[in-house]
Write a structure and sequence with these properties.
Number of helices: 4
Distance between the termini: 28 Å
CATH superfamily: NAD(P)-binding Rossmann-like Domain
Strand order of the largest sheet: 3-2-1-4-5-6-10-8
Number of domains: 1
Strand content: 15-25%
CATH architecture: 3-Layer(aba) Sandwich
Largest sheet: 8 strands, mixed
Shape: globular
CATH topology: Rossmann fold
Structural class: alpha/beta
Order of helices and strands: EHEEEHEHEEEEHE
CATH class: Alpha Beta
Helix content: 25-40%
């Protein structure tokens, strides 16, 4: 498939790109910095908000890996994902979002989330809430083929690629060790699985180390 990855120099994005290339896909990386720190041979220097419809024409999938911890930029989680959705509306190109875990539900009634729990770190609330807002905005759209992939609660940047992971739905799911964890490497593999199987249209799903 032809896959575009935006915000391509981020840590998760780089692993998604590497995995996609390893699986034989045609990958184009989009980043706002001059340096291409990815394994993609095709690199386009362009900020997400400067992208136009023609930039994304011909791609089967666009992976949105935008993320920020800057307090003044939290709104951009929604602004950037909605901009990409606008560019892809009424097309067959799928939009895959590198999501957050804070919005995963912790009860059957779906009234409580990981971020609303008493033990959730206060410093993480702004980004968790911002990413939840972006998900809620996507839920309102029926004009674009989006899928939002939440990682487990413990998202381990330098964790190894084990290949042992499982998918779940909207609720926080624990493994046999009563843990919710996954490495960036396994998350990237899971993202490619979702891309390749073509399922979960207009859905949020999650993945955790099995």
């Amino acid at each position: 498939m032809k896959i575009a990855v935006v915000a391509a120099n981020g840590k998760v994005a780089r692993k998604v790109i590497t995995e996609a290339i390893k699986r034989g896909h045609d990958v184009t990386a989009f980043g706002r910095h001059k340096e291409n720190n990815t394994d993609a041979s095709k690199y386009v220097i362009k900020d997400i908000l400067d992208l136009k419809k023609e930039d994304l024409e011909g791609f089967d999938v666009v992976v949105d890996a935008f993320g920020t911890w800057a307090s003044e930029a939290m709104h951009l989680h929604t602004v950037t994902s909605q901009h990409l959705a606008d560019l892809l509306e009424h097309t067959n190109t799928r939009l895959l979002i590198v999501g957050g875990a804070g919005s995963l539900y912790t009860n059957k009634e779906h009234t409580e989330t990981v971020a609303s729990g008493p033990d959730f770190p206060h410093d993480w609330l702004p980004v968790a809430n911002a990413m939840a807002d972006s998900l809620n905005a996507l839920r309102k759209r029926n004009d674009v083929h989006w899928t939002y992939l939440s990682p487990a609660a413990n998202f381990v940047a330098d964790g190894e690629a084990t290949g042992k992971y499982a998918f779940a739905g909207e609720e926080l799911t624990l493994n046999k060790n009563n843990e919710s964890t996954i490495s960036y490497a396994d998350y990237a593999s899971a993202m490619l699985d979702v891309i390749e199987n073509g399922q979960h249209d207009k859905e949020r799903i999650s993945v955790y180390a099995d």
